[in-house]
């Protein structure tokens, strides 16, 4: 039987899943991504950007910088995987992205040159390229990133958890040489049309990675790849609640009809703000839960279990009452497929027992490839639509850029360092204005309300237009440095904004507000049409 293996999330590329297919999580050695003598020159975390682009801006440094002593030395894969992309950008320069399966991705930035192409199967120590200084850098080095389920994590604890010794900041170390030829079983193989590295033999000197998980069928009926994986998450979520097979099958049928078992980040002609496997709207839960296959399934189960006597209804009617859609028989044609899917994936209990934990997939938030880029139609309505696309997205301080939500510094109300993918107030404005007009604003509430590229607008309800950017002087003085919040005017006296930690992107009433009305405002219009 052809198999696919299970990925907890896609890498943070334009699409929700790796372009090279579903990649098997590989066991085997993990090593430093450089060779020979090297020095740790910068750590993961907040810092003032030393590069020429946005020089001095305080922002997240999402990786660890390693500088080989021998300038222009080889850069190698940290572990087995598949090269999922080799992009080039003004920030990262020449890059290589390796998908290791199970939601694990590593990135290698600022290379002088690359020696791999998309689709290449790599092993720990295979050369990916040569150290360089391409992109936004202040010197020659490797910028090494680790992402888990689409979220950047600190490479230092990740490497040490694999048994490696990472020098202290500013310290020096010695890494093994390039591994020219893979050992037996140490290179990826193509199984059933899906690319996945084979299990590797652990190497005590280099540390060990996660074990290989059980495999799902590559295809069940007409459903294949990520569709099968997403169905597995729906089934496992139901099993975790001790639900019966009929109820779980109703859920799989519903996801088939709503999204074709694809974790889409957009709605349809009926509602543009519904997302995920079950096309849940923001009124049913936060963005991250709706974009998590397991979380979305639990939302559906919550609503289904509230339907009186749902078990006595036809499956399509039960789903209709839970989803509250227009056509009660919209789901009926998917029932036989759902029965087959559930029967196939529950035949071997180990398939679902080894399914990795789910999670919202970063990279899907902007609706897939292309949606995150501007310019759009240049109108205020375009700015508003771009912002409304992310209603319900978590607040994340420091989060958001021209491509959509990003990992911020903290998101919890306690400011305890808990972080997630989302927007802060000015990050939401950056995305919405750039998406509609191509104008890239600074990540500053004050600057966005005063940027010379915008047309000043008087504080007059009769003159305000949808899409206008309003910056608020929270002490009411209007003095420089006092503007600490920003939002986008929707019309009818309302604003959309990312309010504060612990909250989500929301619409609030401005006109008549006892909170916002006393503040001083600075308003700019960035429309180009």
UniProtKB/TrEMBL annotation:
Keyword Cell division: no
Family according to the record: Belongs to the peptidase C40 family.
Domain NlpC/P60, chain residue ranges per copy: 377-527
Protein name (record): Peptidoglycan DD-metalloendopeptidase family protein
Alphabetical GO biological process terms: proteolysis
PROSITE patterns: NLPC_P60 (PS51935)
CDD domains: M23_peptidase
Pfam families for this protein: NLPC_P60, Peptidase_M23
Transmembrane intervals: none
């Amino acid at each position: 039987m052809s198999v696919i293996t299970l990925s907890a999330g896609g890498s943070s590329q334009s699409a929700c899943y790796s372009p090279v297919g579903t990649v098997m999580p590989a066991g085997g050695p993990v090593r430093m991504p450089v060779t020979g003598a090297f020095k740790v020159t910068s750590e993961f975390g907040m810092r003032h950007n030393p590069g020429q682009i946005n020089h001095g801006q305080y922002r997240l440094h999402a990786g660890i910088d390693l500088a080989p002593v021998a300038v222009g030395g080889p850069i190698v894969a940290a572990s087995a995987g598949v090269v999922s992309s080799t992009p080039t950008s003004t920030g990262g320069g020449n890059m290589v992205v390796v998908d290791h399966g199970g939601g694990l991705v590593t990135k290698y930035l600022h290379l002088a040159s690359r020696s791999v192409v998309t689709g290449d199967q790599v092993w720990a120590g295979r050369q990916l390229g040569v150290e360089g200084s391409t992109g936004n850098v202040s010197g020659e080095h490797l910028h090494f990133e680790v992402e888990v389920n689409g979220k950047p994590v600190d490479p230092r604890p990740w490497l040490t958890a694999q048994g490696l010794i990472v020098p202290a900041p500013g310290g020096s170390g010695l890494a093994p040489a390039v591994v020219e030829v893979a050992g037996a079983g140490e290179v990826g193989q193509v199984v059933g049309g899906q690319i996945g590295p084979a299990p590797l033999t652990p190497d005590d000197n280099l540390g060990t990675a996660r074990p290989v998980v059980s495999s799902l069928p590559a295809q069940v009926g007409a459903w294949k790849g990520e569709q099968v994986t997403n169905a597995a998450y729906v089934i496992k979520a139901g099993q975790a609640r001790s639900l019966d097979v009929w109820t779980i099958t109703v859920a799989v049928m519903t996801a088939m009809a709503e999204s074709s078992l694809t974790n889409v980040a957009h709605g349809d002609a009926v509602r543009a703000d519904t997302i995920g496997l079950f096309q849940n709207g923001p009124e049913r839960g936060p963005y991250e839960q709706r974009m998590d296959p397991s979380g979305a399934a639990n939302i559906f189960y919550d609503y289904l279990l509230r339907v009186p006597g749902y078990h006595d209804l036809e499956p399509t009617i039960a789903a209709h009452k839970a989803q509250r859609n227009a056509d009660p028989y919209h789901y009926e044609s998917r029932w036989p497929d759902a029965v087959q899917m559930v029967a196939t994936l529950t035949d071997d209990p180990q398939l679902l027992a080894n399914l990795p934990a789910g999670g919202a997939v970063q990279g899907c938030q902007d609706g897939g490839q292309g949606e995150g880029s501007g310019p759009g139609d240049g109108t205020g309505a375009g700015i508003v639509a771009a912002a409304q696309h992310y209603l319900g997205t978590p607040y994340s301080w420091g989060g958001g850029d021209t491509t959509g939500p990003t990992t911020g510094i903290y998101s919890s109300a306690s400011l305890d360092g808990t972080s997630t993918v989302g927007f802060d107030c000015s990050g939401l404005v950056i995305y919405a204005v750039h998406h509609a007009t191509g104008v890239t604003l600074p990540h500053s509430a004050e600057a966005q309300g005063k940027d010379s590229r915008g047309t000043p607008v008087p504080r007059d309800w009769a003159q305000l237009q949808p899409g206008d950017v309003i910056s608020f002087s929270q002490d009411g003085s209007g003095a420089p440095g006092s503007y600490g919040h920003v939002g986008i005017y929707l019309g009818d006296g309302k604003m959309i904004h990312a309010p504060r930690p612990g909250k989500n992107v929301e619409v609030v009433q401005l006109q008549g507000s006892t909170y916002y009305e006393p503040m001083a405002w600075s308003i700019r219009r960035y429309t180009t049409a």
